[in-house]
Amino acid sequence: MVKKMIMVKNNNPITLITLLSLLSYVVLVVGDSISHGVTEEAERDRVVSLPGQPDVAFQQFSGYVTVNKVAGRALFYWLTEAVSNPLNKPLVLWLNGGPGCSSVAYGASEEIGPFRINRSGSGLYLNKFSWNQAANLLFLESPAGVGFSYSNHSSDLFNTGDLRTARDSLEFLINWMERFPRYKQREIYITGESYAGHYVPQLAREILAYNAVSKHPLNLKGIMVGNAVTDNYYDNLGTVTYWWSHAMISDKTFHQLVNTCDFHRQKNSDECESLYSYAMDQEFGNIDQYNIYAPPCNNSDGSSVVGPTHRNMKLPHLPNQIFRKLSGYDPCTEKHAEKYYNRPDVQKALHANVTKIPYKWTACSEVLNRNWNDSEASILPIYRQLMKGGVKIWVFSGDVDSVVPVTASRFALGQLKLQIKIPWYPWYVKKQVGGWTEVYEGLTFATVRGAGHEVPLFKPRAALELFRSFLRDNPLPKS
Hints:
Elements: E1 5-7, E2 13-15, H1 16-35, H2 40-44, E3 60-68, E4 73-80, E5 91-95, H3 104-111, E6 115-117, E7 124-126, E8 136-141, H4 162-179, E9 188-193, H5 196-213, E10 220-226, H6 232-245, H7 251-260, H8 270-283, E11 306-307, E12 321-322, H9 333-341, H10 344-350, H11 366-370, H12 380-388, E13 392-398, H13 406-414, E14 420-429, E15 432-440, E16 443-448, H14 455-458, H15 460-472
Parallel strand pairs: 5-8, 5-9, 9-10, 10-13, 13-16
Antiparallel strand pairs: 1-2, 3-4, 4-8, 6-7, 11-12, 14-15, 15-16
């Protein structure tokens, strides 16, 4: 067949078939954007492809949403839509803790997101247990000063805390919905881990208050938190009890800690602090506190890699953290993330660092962590408020984490004195016990057997099953 040729102004010949194909593609993209409610502003945030990314069918968007014009605070987000039928699936916001750590570094890049970063930081590979199989995932770097999120007032990095974080996150959601109106009526779930045990319920509380006076309420349905900081007293008591019951410390040190430390306080006496230091320096040994049965990630010279991570750094008994290692997992993903997200081509693809932040992207901000301004002593009153407001609550716990351990969560939740609907039972994944669970009026608690602090990292299949059950509001499978 002879192809009729047409000429364009630069004199390059294009076949009519090729031109029609290009026009069809443009119409398809524009039509898809219109039919899916993508605003012009959202279209500017579209991520075409990340460097070294495998081909995917789902859409991605990332960029900044201003939450305070006076201070110039802007929060960075990354949306990875559902693999299939995104218009019919809920929106799930994921928050990491610290405080001061990045949801891009942890949630997106080593836990529930669709991609993993290879060891050299040169590219990505797929996570076959990504939660975007079941929902649209929105990762938020919060508060300003975390990751790519920034403030034009440097003082904001030295005086932030729980209250401002919750209010800024609410402002983010409200403004983000204007950019993505197709999500305005969508079911919203908020999830996270560790110090996000504060962020998640506090943001939910702000949403309930906003909904009470707004003509356009956010469709919040539920929250889910893992290995979550919940209550100063019971978290601390539960932690030292876990250490003792798992033979990490001696009887003598356990009794000294219980008798000397005021577990209600966030900042304890020098005597108490020295006991914590002694326990970790002299009795723990070279272990990974985030998975006590996994060998730590060591340098080639045999020394441990030490640095700040997102695991709760605010409780008084926590030292600088040791990166973890588990057979079958890459132990140093934070370092790979810092290589990858500091690449100029990656930042350009993500529409990140557009203001040229005067510091490198890091997985966690020590400045924010060390200068945290306010922290609620207990989240339990918020749980009661959320349950009264009809918000579904799930709490899960990896049972080999010694930082915010299962005993801490059980001690804290026990104070709610909730009526039991379904008594304690083992739940299953692939015919194996995935953990144990109990369903209460207004709250579900579940453990994940053999999982460390980052449950989706260590037990990805079980975590995805947990997530699917949470979204369906179904008890975890008994067989």
